[in-house]
Design goal:
The complex is a heterodimer of chains A (112) and B (115).
Chain A: E1 4-5, E2 10-14, E3 19-25, E4 30-38, E5 44-51, E6 56-59, E7 62-67, E8 72-77, E9 86-94, E10 100-102, E11 106-111
Parallel strand pairs in A: 2-11
Antiparallel strand pairs in A: 1-3, 3-8, 4-5, 4-9, 6-7, 7-8, 9-10, 9-11
Chain B: E1 4-7, E2 10-13, E3 19-25, E4 31-38, E5 42-51, E6 54-57, E7 64-66, E8 76-78, E9 87-94, E10 105-106, E11 110-114
Parallel strand pairs in B: 2-11
Antiparallel strand pairs in B: 1-3, 3-8, 4-5, 4-9, 5-6, 7-8, 9-10, 9-11
Classes of the chains: A mainly beta (112), B mainly beta (115).
Chain lengths: 112, 115
Amino acid sequence: KQEVTQIPAALSVPEGENLVLNCSFTDSAIYNLQWFRQDPGKGLTSLLLIQSSQREQTSGRLNASLDKSSGRSTLYIAASQPGDSATYLCALYNTNAGKSTFGDGTTLTVKP
Amino acid sequence: NAGVTQTPKFQVLKTGQSMTLQCAQDMNHEYMSWYRQDPGMGLRLIHYSVGAGITDQGEVPNGYNVSRSTTEDFPLRLLSAAPSQTSVYFCASSYSRQATGNTIYFGEGSWLTVV
């Protein structure tokens, strides 16, 4: 059974800092990995999608990497802003299970 | 483009009552699913559908029913509400379950309290 862990559960940084969010998984037979953002009282919004054959994806100030051999993905946020404050979740789609497994998320607070 | 629309946003039910959470998408997606999100337990899959007329159970299907009569709609029925079903429910859709570049789109959520 796929297990997905996101550490830390919460992170607080000053505005302008570069930061890394971590996502670890136990089953490397994945089809793709997605990073989502969730604002309080809202649904999840997809930020980046990395296919199993890819190593990274970039969108603006966001960069996500995937290392299947070590069972890790990271989401790098450059020059953080208060508007980046949200919960960030990773989700892995497993080829074997035929479904996505979500981590519990990291709640990020960027202080002005 | 409305994306994934869920109704109602908030609902309070008494134990034993039944209700239906509505979900509709306008992106012609084949794959639709229902999750519940609980503190400390993350998102758990309740039921999913890979196309009209086809549904299957996820991790936590007990107490819930679904049907998929059209591509657009995927309602979730609570048969006899229990306090353990107090949660936030999310409907999600994607083009296909296994297609390359398969971004998942989520609705805004439905907050359900069972008293």
